């Protein structure tokens, strides 16, 4: 099995900045909301790639709870990681 690295072989064209994955961790949520409030988000538009923000768990965030139904840290198995990696690996 091959591991992904911080230095991909191809240049990135898109990046997603997620926040709120755990609804009780609000630092990233506040940052993304501030970026969106400002409207002008130069940190999200680079020459080489475009970034998009995502509030990942809005219902839990609204209730200030880590999760409502499923702890997202427990959703991923080694088998799922291998499946996703094989689909996204060129060749």
UniProtKB/TrEMBL annotation:
Protein name: N-acyl-aromatic-L-amino acid amidohydrolase (Carboxylate-forming)-like
Record key words, sorted: Cytoplasm, Hydrolase, Metal-binding, Zinc
Entry keyword Hydrolase: yes
Organism taxonomic ancestry: Eukaryota, Metazoa, Chordata, Craniata, Vertebrata
Cofactor(s) the protein needs: Zn(2+)
Signal peptide coordinates: none
Domain Succinylglutamate desuccinylase/Aspartoacylase catalytic as annotated: residue spans: 13-80
InterPro entries: AspA/AstE_fam, AstE_AspA_cat
UniProt-annotated location(s): Cytoplasm
